[in-house]
């Protein structure tokens, strides 16, 4: 099998990163946009010692698991990798990915993972979208085929998978509320009319960097956070007026200045154009204030379900001291507060901690303490001596999982109950493997917060072994 060769294959199963796996005489071939059960014609793009990567040329016989993608950018945009997969099949593939991670990375055997808790709303579920500006527009196959000429020095939309420097100029998207794309299209028109430049990763110059639109799923509030390379008072005033006049639904406008090289939508300073610079949303009867830089689950409705599983798995008792590690704006803390004696939350981002306190106060919750700092430095014996020894832990770290030092600290404390929420089953399995001698896995529940993507939230309930 050589690079460039065309072959016919029947697809066997889903693999990592939205690709599928087929075999030819036992040799593994990864194919993007293929679905298990498809009979396909592919071209070998890359051949390695143990596997090859191929491009899909034709679906000769479609799988029963296939469905028609709704979005014109499907296949080019990095947002939805599974829009061509029937939703029930997506849920099953996510369940399987959790099981695989626990077996292969975690070393657990005979683990029973229940069906993924699916979403009712499989489109327009995202309450936050982070769009990028780029001076290197990526043209879709359709755009190239149209024969039209395009301004390739301006793009506002989503990155092409694996290309941090290339962006598709997105005019529609079915993941956020429709106002989100209206704002994108409006901001593009304004920027083009004014001749403002986009950030270039090669020259590290250009004015416009990111456009973050957040919507309060249950409050109807809309926050626009425009990230620019530095701050320009005149442009700021122009954008502010434009957004006010064109989109009365926007409740707050923030301009974040980021002059660093990192391609992130946070920066050194935030300038509030109008509104109070935060957005509110509601989960489980609590109202949350969220700063532009603070984390909030991107699917409000499913987050509520996720937190319900977390609450059930933690078996809260009225005399419990609960630690909520990686607590963000205090969402899980507040959700748990009425069911325990006291909650101690730890979070890295100072604005999120400020939000957590504001949220506790606005919701009249008095039994929460929040501490700001990096878990691996802050969470030690001295911290526990000051705040008390926890009866139960809830941890919800970012994709990278927990620092080994944090896992060790948990092992030293040996709380009876331990609930691990994760958006990355691989790092979750890696971390709990380190605790396998102390804890046994009692329950698992994958929850789908991200339909049409390969991402999954997974909750694991662990209990201290009776013999330790
Ligand atoms: C997946 S979010 C969970 C937030 C919260 N539990 C929720 O459901 O909204 C992970 C949080 O961990 C925080 N974080 C990341 N690295 C951290 C670290 N080293 N120490 C403390 N917090 C950290 C992030 O800022 C973020 O708020």
Identify the notable features of this structure and list them briefly.
11 helices, 22 strands, single chain, alpha/beta, binds S-adenosylmethionine, OB fold (Dihydrolipoamide Acetyltransferase, E2P), 8-stranded mixed sheet, globular, 25% helix, 468 residues, Rossmann fold, 31% strand, 3 domains
Q: What is the count of helical runs?
A: 11
Give the radius of gyration: 24 Å
Q: CATH class of the largest domain, please?
A: Alpha Beta
Q: Mean of the pLDDT scores? A: 95
**E-strand count:** 22
Query: Helical content, roughly?
Result: 25-40%
Whole-Å distance between the termini?
Answer: 54 Å
What are the segments in which pLDDT stays under 50 over at least 5 consecutive residues?
A: none
**Strand order across the biggest sheet?**
7-9-8-6-10-11-12-13
Our estimate of the beta-strand percent is 25-35%
Largest sheet: 8 strands, mixed
Question: Architecture of the largest domain, according to CATH?
Answer: 3-Layer(aba) Sandwich
According to CATH, the homologous superfamily of the largest domain is Vaccinia Virus protein VP39
Oligomer designation: single chain
Describe the structure.
- This protein folds into three domains: 61 residues, Beta Barrel (OB fold (Dihydrolipoamide Acetyltransferase, E2P)), CATH 2.40.50; 195 residues, Vaccinia Virus protein VP39 (Rossmann fold, 3-Layer(aba) Sandwich), CATH 3.40.50.150; 155 residues, Beta Barrel (OB fold (Dihydrolipoamide Acetyltransferase, E2P)), CATH 2.40.50.
- The mean pLDDT is 95.
- The chain has eleven helices and 22 strands.
- The chain is 25% helix and 31% strand.
- Helix 1 runs parallel beside helix 11.
- With 468 residues, it is α/β, with parallel strands linked by helices.
- The strands form four sheets. An eight-stranded mixed sheet has the order 7-9-8-6-10-11-12-13, with helices on one face. A seven-stranded mixed sheet has the order 18-17-16-19-20-22-21, sandwiched between helices.
- Bound molecules: S-adenosylmethionine (SAM).
- S-adenosylmethionine (SAM) binds next to helix 6 and strand 17.
